[in-house]
Task: structure prediction
Amino acid sequence: MDFDVINTTTKDELLTAIEDHQDTNFRIGAGYTDLIMNLRFQPTEGMTLINIAQMKDPSFISIEEQQDHIVLGTLVTASNIVNSPLIKLEFPVLHEAALSVASTQIRNSATVGGNICNASPSADMAGALVALKAVCCVLNSKGEERIEPLASFIVGVGKTSLDKNEVLKSISIPRNSGDQLKSGFEKVGTRNSMEISIVSLAYHFQLDESGKVVDAGVSCGAVAPTIPFAESACDFMVGKDLDGLSETDKEEFAENVLKYATPISDIRASEWYRKEVLFNISQAIFD
Amino acid sequence: MKKNLKIIGKSHKKLDGKERVSGKAVYGHDIELPNMLHGAILRTKYPCANLISIDTSRAEALGGVECVITAKDIEVSNISFKRDHPVLKNGTVNCNRDEIAAVAAVTKEIANKAIRLIDVKYEVKEGVYDPIEALKEDAPRINEFGKGEEKFGNKNIAETFHYDHGDMEEQKAKSHVIVKKTYELPRVTHACMATSNITAEYSEFDGRLTLWSSTQVPFLYQRDIAHALKMDPSKIRIIQPIIGGGFGSKLDMHPFEPICALLSMKSKKPVQILFSREEEFVLSPTRQPMIITLTTGADEKGKFTFREVDIIKDNGAYTSWGATTPFVMMQTFSSLYQIPACSFDSKAVYTNNPFAGSFRGYGNPQATFALETNIDLMAEELGMSKAEIRLKNANFKGEVTGQGLHFKTCGAIPALEKVLEKSNYDQRATERKEGRYLRGVGLGSMLHVGGGAKIYRSDGCGTTLKLDDYGYLTIITGSNEIGQGSETVLAMIAMEELGIDEDKIKVINTDTDVKPWDVGVHASRTSFVAGNSLLGAIKLIKEKLSKKASELLEIESDSWTYDNGVMLANEQEIKIDKVAREIHFGSPHELCSVTYFYEPPSSFQDKEFKGDVSGNYAFASQAIEVEVDTVTGNIAVLGVHVSQDVGRVLNPVGLQGQMEGGVATGVGYALTEEMIYEEGILKNPSFHGYKILTTTDMPPVHFYPIETYDEAGPYGSKGAGEAPLIPTAAAIANAVSDAIGVRFNSLPITPEKILRALSEKKEKELVS
Result:
């Protein structure tokens, strides 16, 4: 690997570095748990790496509690999420997803922004955030901000809607309307650690006092080029009483989730298995 | 012969533990010699092709490149067990590992860049990747050096074995049940923590070659390198830096090793070659994939009658030591449990796949998986308990098997009884299974050599002892430390016998110019052979010490005790270092030094593979409990109960480490590990794709040693290293079948196989 590195510690330094490299090949690096792996198999001559791991700007690095949203800076690590009591309480799906990432060492380094911008269909934290209807705050080199739902921010395998002069600054998650939840993350893989999801299911149901679903968020990972938000499965669930779900309801929910799955066969699993297991886990979350 | 001991049998920390955990250990990767160059090897793009031309001119012109070699530049002999493997390829390439050219340059980056500048023109051919296809008449001849046509009547057969004993027809007639099944075993790899490495330094002045190598068998390696390079073996010095994992992978010499030496000879500078992790996956040896067809019978009462075995092994393009795994497999089929008649045939068949090598267990995990599954199936057909059928047929003390193995001690029944009791087997096996998570329990037993294996002309080990003027003992042993704890056990034996403190003991074992001969680390032999060799040397040095001490104290005694640096007899004592000094400085002026060579009492097997091949035999049983998640197909191993006849426990903590490590490899073999090859190309050369288990997947391992005090081993011990992984996959497969009522005839048992089986089972139930 042979490339130049620019270290940025403030927002201004970062924006200048991006602006100055518009005509060259550059990459932005944060936790390096994916990037270094990728660069090993790519020519890096003439490339510039803009390192943002040392950024001090709080909007990039902190978990901020607002009235209507929780805002995660792009450099918040998986371990920061795992260790946040607020997230564990309000968004168990994100807590579980972050905890399922690789290993402690990698969680200490891997960032939520990197997990999103790497745009892998099997990204666990991104999957949970899609289910949570999170919104991305994108900053361009002129300092202008734009807002885009995460579900459309990821546009394909390894592809996001980021322009060359843009960087992901933070991710906002709308807060729950109440404290009755059924929220969790199912990860399918062969190992307990150091595993990339073969299939994942993120779900976040908000319930009213009687146990009826008032808001639903469901996404499935590693079964499509993006991480689809399973809208029809969510619609199906709204208004349902979770304690009173029939077997047919569970099946119908799973069938609705499955509509979003267009998986491929690869060395990790076949298309058949991915569909079968997605259906099974979708059904089983209510057991 | 149990005697009370002070050191042996009590846990002792590894001598090299501190270096290893603090990062101070010097591995091959850490070696840097003055003016050292870095080597890189160009390998074929296609697993099966003719080489039309090789143009190295652009690589040679690159600044920093010191030499480039291809087959036409070198004068070498073919290597490998069958001498069917050219060091650098010329004319054809036969598998994805094939070496075409090599470069030495001032940096690793330049060497790698130079490799990319070599222009090779190929004529791509269609390869043969299935051994059954390779056996067909119209298949192309895969290895031009293979002697299959003359020797075995088929151009693509690399090696065959035939064995039989007993009256097959009579035993078949007695059989009440006969089970015939075909099993397919995958290709898996060792995945050593340290990647393969070598550093070579050739001196043009005296024609001597020094290799810093991680071989497990330095003296055989010295001979193999000499053969490859057409040199005198004694001009080759092998130094073994600390090895980051062996597990059998370093038994064969591979082309990169003579290539590194050739680069040093040509450049006249030291050269180092280090593998990347991807290279390690692609290039290091693997366990043999094989297809085993096994027919077994039992009479009405469940007594075993016969076994018929037919094995097709995927040899890959060249023939490694791996081709000899039938030596071990036939022991299992002929002698694990009492068996009146057995016939065994195996063929190793050339394909355009990579060649397999040796791997802990050496064919035995494959054989044991097939056999223990068939036993379960026979028990089911007979309506017998799976525990009872095993106990009824278990090996026993004094048994001489059809193959001629003599079990002078035998812990088979105690080991089986122990795991049945500790796993609460009878209750577990009859529990009702319902719900999402289904639990099951399975059994597997094994037989393996415990006292070396005489497959080479000598299975011995030499030891030199030196007690210096200050009472420090140097043990120069032929054996090698590859992480298994050999140095520690040897030091413990010396502490026990001579009463010398650990901090006054040095173990020297890394240099063929210094150490006496030993055949190497394999066949679970090191503690047995090196331990006996050390005990022999200790006996000699004690004779020397007691003679001088008697003289100095003016007493007569033949029963000296050694304790805490002091020799005692007839209530008199003298410091051991004083005795050593008197031997040195007093008349007739000798050094307190001895040399001993131990050759085990085992015998070479005859042409029919009959004979008592090992000094003793190890037996083990495992009972494993699993939980199958019927939603995902995942299998959790809940607990592993291991009971093993180890003769006598030497170092409990070291032995526990062997058990846990072995079980970890066995669980991976059963459930997750597989090298995925498509048309001769490896698709998962990384730890992401190759699912070796992590610490968080490790089940609890409950170990119950059985001590049978076998006379042949040091303090009654038996070899223990390979055994713990051998029955693991078998026991897990049997447990999975117990849980979900479906049998798997291939490994690994992946979540996908489970879900498919469950879905097929459901369909069948719906139809009926």
Notes: The domain at 31-126+193-245+250-283 of chain B is CATH 3.90.1170.50 (Aldehyde Oxidoreductase; domain 3). The radius of gyration of chain B is 27 Å.
